[in-house]
């Protein structure tokens, strides 16, 4: 149950200095259990005879994530409230600063003997890590807890597709799929005089105290937090998981685990999910293999993409050359119908199934992956240019989905335009980029899906 050495890297060569505590900046892995960075901080604090302080930097909406709104912040704050409780049970202090993660780490790090970071692969996260490493004169250590196999260990390059990354992950993942025992905290942080700028114990009150976009409200369908994540996973494995291998692509079947928002906010560990799925008494080999494919191969392909392609939010960089050429060759093709972004956002198209999917996304923060593909392909078909379609899809994705602004989001949007795919038969507008049409809706019970969206919308309004 040791933390694998491949998860650990030192960001500067300074030695641990004198300090009142070991600081762990909880930025990506927002949980008190199954967290390698947290357990590493506890080990180091015990070795140095010090308590552990968990710091968190939080800015009001729009400062760094323009699409982030009350929906995202509510889920995040609910998660932090549960993490704080879990940390307190272990004798670990939690301190929130109204600042960037980098500024919070540097401020709290001045009184720390050692600073521990977790890992994220988005450009803004990397910038924060760089600022922290340069801004502190004591050792800064980063510990991976957001993927099963560390991205650079799995591959040293931008992978072409799932089929090229899959064998590399399969060779490595058993060594990383190990349970993580919580370490005993030898020196509780009870005596430290540290105060937070915002009290997350009451998430609703904390949300009300923030300045942010409230046009997209919190949802009732999902509530944030590690206990919520585990409750959902346990209920899922006790029931719907048993049919995952055969009906996972049917939106009306209820076979999805809904772990994506919890993974996005780091409220549950992908390693812990994988181990729990492997040992589940329900579900057969096909169900388990299919689930691990999505959880590890597909998710970590997305991490690979944003890590090795830092301009992942730009059409010209994220979409492969062959696909951009194919779409450019058909940029002048007639587009009928042609919708503006407001009509798309409000679900005012001629396609009632697309409108229902947009309604589910807009009102509940979720859309089944099978429909996400159809939804995005239609935006490409109904927009004036592929470049504008890319921008629209990304804006809507990041604004309404609870798991927006995630490596999966950026990668899935680029997939709609040809990333990690191959050329298909040529057709108008799409060229040789994959097309999805009405036949997609024949692969599941579309009428049942429409009824389910009505029920979900009613529940949100209740």
Secondary structure topology:
Elements: E1 8-10, E2 21-25, H1 36-48, E3 52-57, H2 70-89, E4 93-97, H3 101-109, E5 112-117, H4 123-135, E6 140-143, H5 151-154, H6 162-176, H7 203-208, H8 226-238, H9 244-247, H10 260-264, H11 270-278, H12 285-308, H13 315-318, H14 321-329, H15 341-345, H16 352-364, H17 369-382, H18 386-400, H19 407-416, H20 446-461
Helix/strand class: alpha/beta
Low-confidence blocks of residues: none
Classify the fold: give the CATH topology of the largest domain. Rossmann fold
Can you give the mean pLDDT?
A: 96
Protein architecture, described:
There is one protein chain. With 462 residues, the protein is α/β, with parallel strands linked by helices. It folds into three domains: 5-161 and 178-208, Rossmann fold (3-Layer(aba) Sandwich), CATH 3.40.50.620; 226-308, Serine Threonine Protein Phosphatase 5, Tetratricopeptide repeat (Alpha Horseshoe), CATH 1.25.40; 315-461, DNA Cyclobutane Dipyrimidine Photolyase, subunit A, domain 3 (Orthogonal Bundle). Helices cover 48% and strands 6% of the residues. It has helices spanning 36-48, 70-89, 101-109, 123-135, 151-154, 162-176, 203-208, 226-238, 244-247, 260-264, 270-278, 285-308, 315-318, 321-329, 341-345, 352-364, 369-382, 386-400, 407-416, 446-461; strands spanning 8-10, 21-25, 52-57, 93-97, 112-117, 140-143. The protein has a six-stranded mixed beta sheet, with helices on both faces. Strand 5, helix 4 and strand 6 (140-143) form a beta-alpha-beta unit. Helix 11 runs antiparallel to helix 12, helix 12 (285-308) packs across helix 19 (407-416) and helix 17 packs antiparallel against helix 18 (386-400). The longest helix has 24 residues, at 285-308. It starts with 7 loop residues before the first strand and ends with a helix. The mean pLDDT is 96.
């Amino acid at each position: 149950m040791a933390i694998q050495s491949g998860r650990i890297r030192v960001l500067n060569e300074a030695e641990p200095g004198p300090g009142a505590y070991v600081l762990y900046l909880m930025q990506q892995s927002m949980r008190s259990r199954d967290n390698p960075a947290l357990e590493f901080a506890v080990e180091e604090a015990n070795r140095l005879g010090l308590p552990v302080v968990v710091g968190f930097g939080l800015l009001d909406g729009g400062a760094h994530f323009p699409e982030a709104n009350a929906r995202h912040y509510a889920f995040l704050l609910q998660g932090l409230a549960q993490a704080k409780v879990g940390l307190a049970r272990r004798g670990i202090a939690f301190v929130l600063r109204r600042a960037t993660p980098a500024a919070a780490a540097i401020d709290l790090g001045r009184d720390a003997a050692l600073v521990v970071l977790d890992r994220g692969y988005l450009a803004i996260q990397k910038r924060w890590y760089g600022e922290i490493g340069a801004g502190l004169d004591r050792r800064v250590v980063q510990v991976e807890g957001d993927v099963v196999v560390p991205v650079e260990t799995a591959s040293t390059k931008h992978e072409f597709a799932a089929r090229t990354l899959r064998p590399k992950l399969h060779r490595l993942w058993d060594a990383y799929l190990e349970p993580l025992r919580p370490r005993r905290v030898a020196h509780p942080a009870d005596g430290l005089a540290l105060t937070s700028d915002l009290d997350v114990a009451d998430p609703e009150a904390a949300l009300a105290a923030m300045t942010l976009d409230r046009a997209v409200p919190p949802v009732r369908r999902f509530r944030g937090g590690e206990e919520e994540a585990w409750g959902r996973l346990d209920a899922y494995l006790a029931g719907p998981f048993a049919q995952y291998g055969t009906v996972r692509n049917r939106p009306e079947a209820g076979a999805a685990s809904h772990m994506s928002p919890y993974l996005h906010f780091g409220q549950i560990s992908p390693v812990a999910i994988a181990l729990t799925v492997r040992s589940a008494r329900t579900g057969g080999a096909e169900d388990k293999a299919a689930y691990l494919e999505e959880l590890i191969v597909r998710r970590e392909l997305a991490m690979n993409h944003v890590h090795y392609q830092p301009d992942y939010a730009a059409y010209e960089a994220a979409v492969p050359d062959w696909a951009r050429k194919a779409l450019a060759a058909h940029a002048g093709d007639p587009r009928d119908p042609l919708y503006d972004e407001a009509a798309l956002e409000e679900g005012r198209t001629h396609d009632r199934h697309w409108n229902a999917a947009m309604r589910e996304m807009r009102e509940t923060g979720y859309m089944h992956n099978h429909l996400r593909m159809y939804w995005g392909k239609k935006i490409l078909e109904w927009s004036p240019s592929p470049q504008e379609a890319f921008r629209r899809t990304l804006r809507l994705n990041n604004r309404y989905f609870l798991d927006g602004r995630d490596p999966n989001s950026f990668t899935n949007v680029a997939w709609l335009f040809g990333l990690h795919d191959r050329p298909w038969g040529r057709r108008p507008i799409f060229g040789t980029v994959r097309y999805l049409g009405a036949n997609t809706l024949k692969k599941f019970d579309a009428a049942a899906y429409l009824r389910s969206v009505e029920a979900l919308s009613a529940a949100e309004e209740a």
